[in-house]
Amino acid sequence: MVERLILSGAPLIDGSGTQPVRGKAVVVEGARIAAVVEERAAPPGTALRLDGLTLLPGLINAHVHLCLGGEPDPVTRLREEPLALTAVKMVVRARETVEAGVTTVRDLGGREYAEFAVRRAVGEGLIPGPRILAAGRGICMTGGHGWWFGREADGPDDVRRAVREQLKAGADVIKIFATGGVMTPGVEPGSAQLTLEEVRAAIEEATKAGRRVAAHAQGSQGIANCIEAGITSIEHGIFLTEELVARMKREGIALVPTLIAPHQIGAQGVAAGIPEFMVRKSQAVNPSHVASFQLAVKAGVPIAAGTDAGTPLNPHGSIVPELELMVKYGMTPLDAIRSATAVAANVLGLGAEVGQVAPGFAADLVAVGGNPL
């Protein structure tokens, strides 16, 4: 017989964007939400009172790198340590993430597919961790941003092959590097890297296999190429324009801004041990990053929360620092929560499974102290 758990006593933020409601009981049977009812109408079951807390859907981090540890220079650390040690650290980071109330993550670039093993171990109940959607190796041009842990590819045919390799390895999603970025020396965030033809080839191959595509895209031309080719989500989106956000809104393309990543690099600086080239680029792009985020909010672009966890001094675990920046720069607290629940779930293709407290959804739930609004 399936065990029934009755959660009551807490205001409920259900992830749909509606205001919190009181006096509700959430009925959990097995791993699913069976019903949301008035407390007085709750069926028999094991009662768990949550007085003084607020009940939410489990949070979703749409952009992490379990292979990176948030050290001042995580790239050097990753490249110097043995793969087995990276894998052990990934297990620890997965546990830290779920213990912080983040129950689903999208890993957008790992190391030699170790993240797939962590995904399997969590799924088989061997270790604690969030639900993991993993991309495997991100696809970049030769010498482009992310080459140090990505799959270098040149020309549409090579890009197709690279996508097929990730699919063969077990990728849930495909990641491409469409522009330069902060954490690779010798490249600039505003520069386009993959061509329109290469981006289109990646998306066509992924789509044939039923996979979505996330693009590291910071510069305007690279973002435009991704929009033209039919991308699912723009990661970072530092140099957006009014025309680009209007197209994103019209075509339902999401933005995952990862505000906290360059913020931490620029704020902590070389004094914290972060390489100078990362600090220089982060400090240069931060004003445009904030302005682009505000453009997207104003235009009504779907925005999913993601931290880029693992980048310098941006550790795995809580997603709250990202949500705080989103609110600071113009989102309402309720919309920020929605960006880490229902909106993120839709971006990941899990909109009927997680991200809301509603009958039939997975019982991914988190109770937090006080009122998060």
Describe this structure as you would to a colleague:
The protein is of the alpha/beta class. It folds into 2 domains: 4-57 and 356-369, Urease, subunit C, domain 1 (Roll), CATH 2.30.40.10; 59-347, TIM Barrel (Alpha-Beta Barrel), CATH 3.20.20. It has 12 helices and 15 strands. A 4-stranded mixed beta sheet has the order 3-2-1-4, with no helix packed on it. It has a 4-stranded parallel beta sheet with strand order 11-12-13-14. A 3-stranded parallel beta sheet has the order 6-7-8. The longest helix has 24 residues, at 276-299. It starts with a strand and ends with a strand.
Structural class assignment: alpha/beta
Which band does the percent of strand residues land in? 15-25%
Report the CATH superfamily of the largest domain: Metal-dependent hydrolases
Outline the biggest β-sheet. Answer: 4 strands, mixed
Q: How many beta-strand segments?
A: 15
CATH fold-type name of the largest domain = TIM Barrel
CA(first)-CA(last) distance: 38 Å
Shape: globular
CATH class label of the largest domain: Alpha Beta
Rg (C-alpha, Å): 20 Å
Instruction: Give the tally of structural domains.
Output: 2
Strand order of the largest sheet: 3-2-1-4
Total DSSP helices = 12
Average pLDDT, rounded to a whole number, is 97
Low-confidence runs:
none
Q: Helix proportion of residues, in percent?
A: 25-40%
Which series of helices and strands comes N to C? EEEEEEHHEHEEEHEHEHEHEHHHHHE
The appropriate CATH architecture of the largest domain is Alpha-Beta Barrel
